[in-house]
UniProtKB/TrEMBL annotation:
This is FAD-binding protein. Keywords: FAD, Flavoprotein, Oxidoreductase. SUPFAM superfamilies: FAD-binding/transporter-associated domain-like (SSF56176), FAD-linked oxidases, C-terminal domain (SSF55103). The keyword Flavoprotein applies. Residues 51-229 form the FAD-binding PCMH-type domain.
Length: 498
């Protein structure tokens, strides 16, 4: 597990493994429980593949009642639970625990209702992100948030991490497109929050759940907002002689009051990797590439494209290529959508980071990353959502070379510290998970973290849901706010801290 420490497994729970497996098999009969090591290998990691751990047991429920009974049993028997969707998390959010039940929600894969009049779709959490758009596209609608992994990632996982994507600049993140949830608490209680109505009664629990990383409850049903497909959508490829020029262009476009449907940036290593993989026609000579998409009425799109060309030329753009067909537009995006697997072809391993900065700081941060690359002796390829400042540096390393994983971790930590230093945040859409957990103190004070953990305690006072994630220090709920270090002595030394 390299430098990432997890809570020590409970010997008492491990000793009761057969009993736990038998109890879960009664709740989910047939093939719903997986306990053989060879069969659990598929669940030992998520998208953060540098870390692996077999779970205690895997369970795949098919009904809300089964989820409720599983959680109630685990609550009454002090067994930890790690909820899991498609397993595409890049922050280790679905990493299993040796003494925990891995609760896979991928059998919840049905579209339950399509309501065009209310512009809403009700789905189960295992439906893929792209699956929602596929269900409504024939009628001219789509679901706006579109992470690069949209062909595989589940909507339940999108809610856990508050995923974004290319279109989040104009149409918002997951939190701006989810209307309602059904969820099961750790105690087994089933509750509903939100719905097809556009306003929330009482506290906005829906926003609290979106981005909660599986720490507060297990989502079993989702109501999302769908949008009518725009009349026209065109994309433009813009090549620049430097990343700084590209970053300045991004700031100038937004400063001019233009909000594109999407605005993505790639540096030279990412450009070459994507072009070799997809052959999208990217300019290989460019040091940085912007892909800008405009959507809306045709006259508006044409006007804004001409303004963006002017801004790009003022920022030393060397290549400007506008899509002239839907096929060409999709080809432009194919390279960007395939950038992560494309980089996987040029390096044995990579860490995909996720920090967010003010747009005006792009040139400074990109220059800082180049200096950090030299410091740590590792290459980095940059692919990110330029419009909202959400960076995705891909740190290239070889896990088979001693010390390279540790160097990659240190490099990634320095990038995230730089993001916070310039006024940004540790994560934009991948979540904290285990990857950024021990960096939370760079952004939050101890009081900040305790206050956040009080919310966790309101939903899960035993800390059984996805423990070891997000919070760098584990406090017992009854003691939150009352712990003080006196004369260098820490009270309650038996409390696990990792």
């Amino acid at each position: 597990m390299s430098g990432i420490a997890m809570p020590k497994p409970s010997d008492a729970v491990l000793a009761r493994r057969r009993e736990i497996v038998a109890a879960l098999s009664e709740i989910v009969p047939g093939e719903g429980v997986i306990d053989a090591d060879t069969e659990m290998r598929a669940y030992e990691t998520d998208g953060l593949t540098a870390y692996r751990q077999l779970p205690l047991v895997v369970v795949l429920p098919e009904t809300v009642d089964q989820v409720s009974r599983i959680l109630r049993y685990c609550y009454e028997n002090d067994v930890k639970v790690v909820p899991r969707g498609a397993g595409t998390s890049l922050s280790g959010g679905a990493l299993p625990l040796a003494d925990g039940v891995l609760l896979s929600m991928m059998k919840f894969n049905q579209v339950l209702e399509i309501d065009y009049e209310n512009r809403a779709v009700v789905v189960q959490p295992g439906v893929t992100n792209l699956g929602i758009t596929r269900a409504v596209e024939e009628e001219g609608f789509y679901y706006a948030p579109d992470p690069s992994s949209q062909i595989a990632c589940s909507i339940g996982g999108n809610i856990a991490e508050n995923s974004g994507g290319v279109h989040c600049l104009k149409y918002g993140l997951t939190t701006n497109n989810v209307l309602g949830l059904q969820m099961v608490l750790m105690t087994g209680e089933v509750i509903r929050i939100g719905g097809k109505h556009l306003d929330s009664e009482g506290y906005d629990m829906l926003a609290l759940m979106t981005g909660s990383e599986g720490l507060l409850g297990v989502v079993t049903e989702v109501t999302v907002r769908i949008l009518q497909s725009p009349e026209t959508a065109r994309a433009v490829l813009i090549g620049f002689p430097s990343s700084e020029d590209s970053g300045k262009c991004v700031a100038d476009i937004i400063g001019a009051g233009i909000i594109p449907g999407g605005m993505e940036m790639m540096d030279k290593p990412a450009i070459h990797a994507a072009e070799d993989f997809v052959h999208a026609g990217y300019p290989r000579e460019a040091e940085a590439l912007l892909i800008v998409e405009l959507d809306g009425p045709e006259a508006e799109v044409d006007h804004l494209l001409s303004r963006i060309e002017e801004i790009a030329k003022a920022n030393k753009a060397e290549t400007i290529r506008v899509s002239n067909s839907e096929e060409e537009r999709m080809t432009f995006w194919a390279g960007r959508k395939a950038a992560f697997p494309a980089v996987g072809r040029i390096s044995p391993d990579y860490l995909c980071m996720d920090g967010t900065i003010p747009r005006k700081e792009l040139p400074k941060v990109l220059a800082g990353m180049r200096a950090l690359s030299e410091k740590h002796g590792l290459r980095v390829a940059n692919v990110f959502h330029a419009g909202d400042g959400n960076l995705h540096p891909l740190i290239l390393y070889d896990a088979n070379k001693p010390g390279e994983l540790e160097a990659a971790e240190a490099f990634g930590a320095d990038i995230l510290k730089l993001c916070v230093e310039v006024g940004g945040v540790l994560t934009g859409e991948h979540g904290v998970g285990i990857e950024k957990r021990d960096l939370m103190g760079e952004m939050f004070s101890e009081d900040d973290l305790k206050q956040q953990q009080r919310v966790k305690c309101a939903f899960d006072e035993k800390h059984l849901l996805n423990p070891g994630k997000v919070f760098p220090t584990l406090h017992r709920c009854a003691e939150l706010g009352r712990m003080h270090v006196h004369k260098g002595k820490l009270p309650f030394p038996d409390i696990p801290r990792f």
